[in-house]
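Q: Hi! First time doing this. I have a protein sequence and I read that you can turn it into a structure. Is that right? Here it is:
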Amino acid sequence: MWNHQWKKIAAGTLGAAMLLASGCSNSTSGADANADAGDGKETVISVWGLSDFLKGDESPGQQMIREFNEKYKGKIRVEGRYMPAAEYNTAIQAAITSNDLPDIYQTPSGSDIRTLVANGQVLPFDGLVSDSWKSRFLAGSFAEGVNVLDGKTYSWPLTGPQLGSILYYNKEVLSQAGLDPEKPPKTWDELIAMSKTVTAKGKGDVYGFVFGGGDSGAASFVNAFSAGVAPEQSGGFNLKSGKYVYDEKATLDSFGLLQKLKSDGSILPSSYTMKGAEAAILFGQNKAAFLIDSRARMWLVKRDTPEAKFGLAAVPTPDGSKATYYYVPANPTGYMISSKTKHPKEVGLFLEEGFAAPMFYEKYLKSGVALTPIESINNNKALYPYPEFDTFIQLHKDLLKVRPDYAVKNPQTAKVIVELGSLDQPKVKPGFNDILQSVLSGAQKDAPSLLKAYNDKLNKGLEEAVGKVKASGAGVDLKDFIFPNWDLKKDYTANDYKELK
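A: Yes, that's right. Below is the predicted 3D structure, encoded as structure tokens:
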């Protein structure tokens, strides 16, 4: 039943991507790698992905594969292949076209598990892993309509909760400016004052703040701070009202803070055009006191500027109280089992004992990149790679809550998201970051009017997408994007979804 409902949207999603298949990779595929199966040799399992944790011999993924291969030497050998996104998407679509998929592969960009299930390209995990396998993961990691379809499981969450906004503060810079390096700002006023002090003492060489405006730094800044004003408005879409809110208080006040730092001269001047990676390197080289970035920036600063002395803290709020950020545990993307695999039993064993197991996730946590989806591993301090990781863990626990997910409420909302490109509606130009950058540069003046016009376009776009999908016969409504019973300070639970019904 589910497959039939999704055939049309699946074909549409993969159709454009499969045009890339003409650039077919000449790498070893799943079928080729397993040609020797059944002749007394090792069973070879191929894994393809674009996740960095498979990149390089010393990556957590490759370490795990070596350990698994050693354990099952002579019986099973896993071959893991990392590819950058563009190369991976071309290779996997070519493999789909030629019916030559690897045994385990990651969802390509522009697609998701639901599409691949509808097209018959993946197998469920049920019967290939133990019945108790799911119990090792965080609550909410598996959700019908997301990674569970018609009661069958097709993937698992690759990471645990991910905090998208952290204040990174440079202790060396603060100390040189005569400020306490162990007391980062908690309020907006403190951030403004400390940034001005650092900039004045820096005399054109060191500044209070740096960000990667050449990426989406301005938008990331505003979203990070808006959570301290009205968390349900952060990110631009309010799930309590089902409306876009880019022209409301949280966004306008947070952008006002960014404009204030700019008018004070507290922002490193090249911030408006540089990439996020460049901004982080300058932060690590003691050219700025403060940087707002996601959980991933911690290990990158450690890697790129290992001598940097820095700390992590909650993003300041207007009154110093803690902001709240949100995530969803279940995800419609991840690693899946190919329907073409000739070795489902061995693949299941590898997932249960290697990839989706402590053998991988203990190494992953040690890498310092993110939390894992297994709570007992996250709480094991013996695995923490450096002192800052204690704070990293605590910030995730203090600031993150599970938000409602419209895909859980009604899986057919995914058809609306495909129509839009994403809930952010990337087809609408100029986008949020473009608008902010234009005002920061002086090319535009009236941010409230520009954001209202943008907001109106997005609300209209959502209405039209829902109407179009509804007219095609799907059971979807604007109300599917509204959660009136959402308590902003609590995790949204299975009981909350039942309450709506």
